[in-house]
Amino acid sequence: MEQLKTIGRELAMGSQGGFGQSKEFLDLVKSIGEARSKAEEDRIVLSEIDILKRRLLEPDVPKRKMKEYIIRLVYIEMLGHDASFGYIHAVKMTHDDNLLLKRTGYLAVTLFLNEDHDLIILIVNTIQKDLRSDNYLVVCAALNAICRLINEETIPAVLPQVVDLLNHQKEAVRKKAIMALHRFHRKSPSSVSHLVSNFRKRLCDNDPGVMGATLCPLFDLISEDVTSYKDLVSSFVSILKQVTERRLPKSYDYHSMPAPFIQIKLLKIMALLGSGDKSASEMMYMVLGDLFRKCDSSTNIGNAILYECIRCISCILPNPKLLEAAAEAISKFLKSDSHNLKYMGIDGLGRLIKISPDIAEQHQLAVIDCLEDPDDTLKRKTFELLYKMTKSSNVEVIVDRMIDYMISINDNHYKTEIASRCVELAEQFAPSNQWFIQIMNKVFEHAGDLVNIKVAHNLMRLIAEGFGEDDDDADSKLRLSAVESYLKIISEPKLPSLFLQVISWVLGEYGTADGKYSASYISGKLCDVADAYSSDETVKGYAVSALMKIYAFEIASGRKVDVLPECQSLIEELLASHSTDLQQRAYELQALIALDARAVESIIPLDASCEDIEVDKDLSFLNGYIQQAIESGAQPYISERERSGMFETTDYHSNDHHEVTSHALRFEAYELPKPSGPPEASTELVPVTEPSYYTESHQPISTSLASERESSEIKLRLDGVKQKWGRPSYQPTTSASSTPQQAANGTTTHSDGGGVGSSSSKPRSSYESKKPEVDPEKQRLAASLFGGSSSSRTDRKSSSGGHKPAKGTANKPATIPKDPVQPPPPDLLDFGEPTATTVAATDPFKELEGLLDSSSQDGGATDVMGLYSDAAPVITTTTSVDSLLSELSDSSKGNSRTYQSQTSKGPNSKEALEKDALVRQMGVNPTSQNPTLFKDLLG
Amino acid sequence: MIHFVLLVSRQGKVRLTKWYSPYTQKERSKVIRELSGVILSRGPKLCNFVEWRGYKVVYKRYASLYFCMCIDEDDNELEVLEIIHHFVEILDRYFGSVCELDLIFHFHKAYYILDELLIAGELQESSKKTVARIISTQDQLVEAAKEEAGSISNIIAQATK
After folding, report:
1. Which residue on chain A is closest to B108 by alpha carbon?
2. What is the Cα A113 distance to its own chain's centre?
3. DSSP string over B36-84
4. N or C: which end of chain A has fewer CB within 10 A?
5. Tens digits of per-residue pLDDT, A847-861?
6. What's the pLDDT score for residue B57?
7. How far is B66 from chain A (nearest CA, A)?
8. Facing residues of B59 across strands?
9. Which residues of chain A are within 8 Å of residue B124 when distances are taken between CB atoms?
10. Predicted local distance difference test score (pLDDT) of residue A567
């Protein structure tokens, strides 16, 4: 160490004196260092570039000077400027025989060039030569360059040599050769697929560095094909065991952990090998258990290993003991003050929650603290966790939170991600279509054009098809609510284009359907849209089509249509539009307004967006017209095949008709043109075919002007969208959501009441001793997030008798008889009544107190975790029975209850306000002191 | 995999960049600008991780210098944090209580050290001793070469006069 220090200092001195860098260079670095602004820095660098350009062009630059220039180039490039004018000199320097210069050259090219750069080809030859060098430092330098520069095409040029180097006597070379092969594998997996046995061999290398490096390529190989490496499981396990038993040289210790980086790599590999494999997993349990015991959670590296263990355990076949250990590690992370550890804890929770969903509940308040943390990173991680644990019972809370957060951020990348997550959750768990539309509106409004266009089509389709039941009333209510919400939003400035398209379509289709809004009102709004977003052609197109529908419905219903002046001017403007699409829409609209009611109705029938459009391919409706034409002397239509057949037999057509009639390429030679071809025949043909084409193409437009429009819109809507909430899936959603809804109601409306019940059921009277404060809002949030079937964690903790009053407050008398185990104390019911607010006020805390008490009394152990693991499973079963029964009773009670839950569901902002008021009335002020509380509780 | 390593001063000045995935010069400047904006503005007690464009950036501040590494989404952040520390410890040994100035004036040496630690975006050597040994061997060679070159260049210089 001391020696190194002196060497370092000496080197520093040496390089500052004469040989290393010149004064010029040091001045450059210094002036850059002193630069006050980016502009000043840029100026310095630009003048430096000028100098270097000149210097490099000078003839016979001494080599050591050149070396310095190249380092200066590196410096320039590092500062973000283009030094490409000097690349070639760096390449030349790699050719030098002097190792010092060669290394500089290699360093510079690895920093300058990407693997697809043209100059690479000039280096390959040098690299090949250097790989054969006797000096291992030269070989190392070349291998370093290989790792950066070799691309798919040049791999074969160096591969054999690199493979040979796997047996080099110097471990540094072997290690780098392994890493180079790893790189090759990344670039082109097929190039090294035959070398797998070499990797296996290197795993037994007696240098730990080489062995550790070998784990990198093996990890990649195993993640591609697990099955062919199953035989290595025992080797990996035994290596890990040896590492943890400190069999590796001391120099691999890091912060007194034995070779932690190797341990982490091994754990990653084991996670791959053990997933879904019982025997492999069983081999790992032992060593994983040891790791948990041995890991020093006071150092960062120890925690890194612990975290990797958690990941590994969440991947391999679950083992209850290990899961417990992992849960314990996670709770340590979450309780830590360090944000890093909290972040890891949240991540670990997200992984473990898939295996044991209950685990989140004991950490609910910690999770909510993380959600409200000012640290964005932590927040996002927590949202990821929430996304993973969303159920139909908590979807509303979670999605609302996500949207609030989405609105608050500017990072487009993350906004897109969270918007798509919101949409996904809403599609999957939406409790009602109204809610779904509300959420979609919010997502569109705020994330706008970041949303996938399919989502918009999906939404239109939902509104058009409605509930999917034969309940027209509900459908029209849904549409009306959509229309109303859109009319409210539409005048807001700068709505995203996609959202405006949806709005225009819905307003056009259903704006006037209910009779609540007049056609002129809606059309005025649509004109405003077309006006305000005049640069967006798609929106304009949608708006014009919507106008057309509005007017069509008006005409069809026999009312007189007054085209608004602004609408008239819009049409006129669009008639001259540069966009042919808009022009056509405008012409169609203009033509439509002039038609009579009967024609309009057949063009645009009311609310027919869901009808299939039948296309009459034979155009049979034109028969009369054709008949008439034939009678008046027109030639009958000759089908394409007949015409081409005719051509072959009689060469009736001249050559220029050839292209018209044949679609496929013809490989036979053209026939010789007949000089005496009958010109009158061809002139005769032209007038015949032309009118027939004319009728074919023009007729449909004049009769069913808008049917094409309509069909194109239909196509849009059906755009390969999979409907997730549609007919088949809706029914179960309602029934499923109604029951957890009950539970959630129980906890949300009476979360304090629930606390009352459980706490009062405990025959303890130590309430008065301490009063830790829990922010009731947070608790409520926790309850609504985590409350699926059971209410809150604390509720669950309490003795089973506690459920009775809790359920009582939740208006579920049907469940009471299920818990006769412990008759409640006589005063319970009083507590349970929501009117007993003054008592209820203190209860959540008392209840938490009770929790502490019970832990100290039950086993004399202060370890709350242990208590959880003891008590939780038993009660879990009872609660699950409970909820199951409540579900049964719900369904038996039939419609009335479902209806009730539906109504209480809706937009419950009012309810929330009331709840809030209740809480305040009870004298509990929302505070943010619960972190300390939880230290009391759990730490 | 580590996609790039970035050393930025508290004022946002770049001290070292190493790119293990291909980025054009334009992208590089954009990345540096974007990330230094995000990272330098973060408070001291927050996470050392930032989620960024589908990647994660792990950073740690040493005195006035921020060491940042960009990694894949499923990498172990704590491990990378320790890799950074590992790198700093090696630098510290090499320079003898390293300071920003050492890195400013000897950035190429820092590059050589980094090359012995990371290769192709992976940790290649986790033993400080091994890294130190190979770096010092290289330096000795350089010393020898230096003397040699010095004498030769002197001869040449005299001869050409």
Report:
1. A71
2. 33
3. HHHHHTS-TTS-SEEEETTEEEEEEEETTEEEEEEE-TTS-HHHHHHHH
4. N
5. 444 444 444 444 443
6. 92
7. 16
8. B68
9. 175-176, 179, 209, 213, 216
10. 81
ipTM: 0.89
Alpha-carbon distance of A461 to A502, in angstroms, equals 10
Residue A706: its pLDDT value, please? 43
Q: Which pLDDT band holds residue B58 (cuts at 50, 70, 90)?
A: very high
CA distance to A701, B17, B19, per residue, from A78 (Å) = 64, 6, 11
Distance from CA of A179 to the nearest CA of B (A): 7
Q: Could you count the other beta carbons within 10 Å of the beta carbon of residue A765?
A: 10
Residue B154: Cβ-neighbour burial (10 angstroms; 0-12, 13-18, 19+): exposed
Interval A762-820: pLDDT, tens: 444 444 444 455 667 777 777 777 664 444 344 444 444 434 443 434 444 444 444 44
pLDDT at A490 over 50: yes
Query: Do B146 and A14 form a contact (C-beta atoms < 8 A)?
Result: yes
Half-sphere exposure in the Cβ direction for A563 (13 Å, CA): 19
DSSP sequence for A836-882: -HHHHHHHHHHHHHHHHHHHHHHSS---HHHHHHHHHHHHHHHHHHH
Average pLDDT, chain A: 70
Q: A236 vs A617, which has greater pLDDT?
A: A236
Most distant pair of Cα atoms in chain B: their distance? 63
Q: What is the Cα–Cα distance from A506 to A913, expressed in whole angstroms?
A: 32
- CATH (domain of B63): 3.30.450.60
Token pair 């609408």 is found at: A567
CB atoms within 10 A of CB A198: 18
Set of chain A residues whose Cβ sits within 8 Å of the Cβ of B122: 179, 182, 213, 216
Neighbouring residues of A689: CB distance < 8 A, sequence distance ≥ 6: none
Strands B14-19 and B49-52: unpaired
C-alpha span between B69 and B1 (Å, rounded) = 10
A323 has a chain B CB within 8 A of its CB:
no
pLDDT of residue A502: 82
- What range does the domain containing B15 cover? 2-159
**CA neighbor of A172 nearest in space, from A128, A151, A142:** A142
Identity at A737, one-letter amino acid code: S
The fraction of chain A above a pLDDT of 90, given in percent, is: 1
Please, which residues bridge with residue A820 across strands?
none
Distance from CA of B120 to the nearest CA of A (A): 6
8 Å CB contact of B145 and A99 = yes
The structure tokens listed for A705 are 């002007």
Give the CA count within 13 Å in the CB-facing half-sphere of A295.
27
- The answer to whether residues A8 and B95 touch, using CB atoms and an 8 Å cutoff, is yes
Does the structure show a pLDDT above 60 at A725?
A: no
The residues, any chain, with a CB within 8 Å of residue A280's CB and separated by 6 or more, are: A230, A233, A273, A274, A316
Taking contacts as CB-CB distances below 8 angstroms, the residues of chain A near B96 are: 4-6, 8-9
| Both tokens assigned to B155 | 């001869």
- Report how many domains make up chain B: 1
Contact B9, B3 (CB under 8 A): no
